[in-house]
Amino acid sequence: MSKQDSSNRFTITYKTVQNVPIQFDVYPPSFSAGAPTKALPSVVHFHGGGFVVGTRRDFFPAWLQKRINTAGIVFISADYRLMPTGGVTGHEILEDIQDVFAFLRSSKYTIAVDALAAEGQLPCPKFDLDHSKIAVTGGSGGGMLAYFAAAHVRPRPVAVLSLFGMGDLVRPHYLFPKDKPFMSGRPLVDPSKLKEFLHPISSSQIIVESPLAFHPPTATTPAIPANPRMLVSLAYLQLGVYLDYYTGEFEPSLSLTLRAAAEKGATHEELYELIPGRHRPLFPVFHIDENFPPTFFMHGTADTAVPLSESEHLYQLLKKAGGKAGESTIRKPEGQDHFFDIFVPGIEDKFGDTFDEAVEFLKKYLDE
After folding, report:
1. In whole angstroms, how large is the CA radius of gyration of the chain?
2. DSSP category for residue 85
3. Is residue 256 one of the residues assigned to a domain?
4. Mean per-residue pLDDT for 111-121?
5. What local confidence, expressed as pLDDT, does residue 219 receive?
6. In terms of domains, do 166 and 176 share one?
7. What is the mean pLDDT of residues 6-11?
8. φ, ψ (nearest 5 deg) of residue 215
9. Are residue 96 and residue 226 in the same domain, yes or no?
10. Which of 227, 248, 276 is the last residue of a domain?
């Protein structure tokens, strides 16, 4: 597992909620010839973690950051509020994603960079961002957040890279309880040990960073998590209640409503029709048309955390929509599970060409 190149990284706070700063890291390309004379394109990344765990430096696709920087493009990795404490649902996370782009495209970004430079804290020459040349990417839950940006940010990102992204949450995987191990052979969790993350939630604390931690510290996945939040999304999937926490719709339970309809034979499309209008901004299928940015999907065929069918369904909708959306591409690395690009040793030797293709896809639209 390669590490991100942090030699020139700098950090900016893009908003504060209840006195909690929410930040992004900026990874600039190298400036061997001095400060750039023109504004630079950028790629904004959102980390995975099922919306409940992780930080802007966790689940980090170093292969992507390095390739993006080598191409002369700025790589930005952003935090966002995490469910479920503090009343955070997908709606609050959507606000954060919109605010990242609003900040980057405003004078606030320039002011923040100038302040770092004045303090001697800027590790590289100053540069401007090209507001018209921003792409977006994310892995797993972060893939959904990339879709948020594609659907709701204006101007839209020019392209999307979805790495095994969540995006089709009315599938049985999210709606039905499970009584056998279902994710990478991990044992079922004991929900009674996660009561602080189960409805009704008493904590009003806003959490933005929840780093991955394992027992022992030197272990690699799928080692036993030391951070209880690492088990929360597993618990929601196991209980079949993900949509309740994602939307905040507990009474009546949106998960139970859709599950009952599915048990009566409702089709995939009919399940979507049961989603109240106020929650539809959180579901990409309602926002796909010919203007949706071209999307490169990379999703392993053996993914046990986010079914491949989620990316396949969105890909088919985009191709059907035509226009820029119809220029989307999908690649399905054979036999690969969730976050294969980060945790599988020697993965560059197997899929380096696919990684290159994904970056070339982004570059194509950033160069237009």
Report:
1. 20
2. G
3. yes
4. 96
5. 59
6. no
7. 89
8. -110, 125
9. no
10. 276
Domain identity same for 258 and 299? no
Contact in structure between 207 and 329 (CB atoms under 8 Å): no
Residues 164 and 201 in one domain: no
At 52 the three-state DSSP class reads coil
Same domain for 271 and 324: no
What is the pLDDT at residue 36? Answer: 82
Q: Note the pLDDT tens digit of each residue in 199-219.
A: 999 999 999 999 988 766 665
pLDDT one-digit tens code per residue, 252-261? 999 999 999 9
Is position 104 within any domain?
yes
Q: Which amino acid is at 5?
A: D
pLDDT at 185 over 60: yes
The pLDDT value recorded for residue 224 is 64
pLDDT at res. 7: 79
Preceding omega of 276 cis (within 30 degrees of 0): no
Are 92 and 60 in contact by the 8 Å Cβ rule? The answer is no
Query: What integer pLDDT is reported at residue 11 of this predicted model?
Result: 98
For residue 143, give its domain range: 10-171+279-366
Q: What CATH number has the domain bearing residue 38?
A: 3.40.50.1820
In a domain, 215, yes or no: yes
Q: By C-alpha distance, which of 318, 300, 297, 319 is closest to 308?
A: 300
Among 209, 242, 276, which residue terminates a domain? 276
Please report where in the chains the tokens 């929601």 appear, as a residue.
236
Q: Which runs of E-coded beta strand occur in the chain? A: 10-17, 20-27, 40-46, 74-78, 129-139, 160-163, 214-215, 224-225, 295-298, 329-331
Average pLDDT in the chain: 95
**What type of residue sits at position 192?**
S
Confidence of residue 1 (pLDDT cuts 50, 70, 90): low
CB atoms within 10 A of CB 128: 14
Taking the C-alpha atoms of residue 366 and residue 361, their distance in angstroms, rounded to an integer, is 9
φ, ψ of residue 64 to 5 degrees: the values are -75, -45
Please state whether the predicted TM-score (pTM) of the whole model is above 0.90.
Answer: yes
179 and 92, same domain (yes or no): no
Whether residue 5 is contained in a domain is answered as no
Are 117 and 221 found together in one domain?
Answer: no
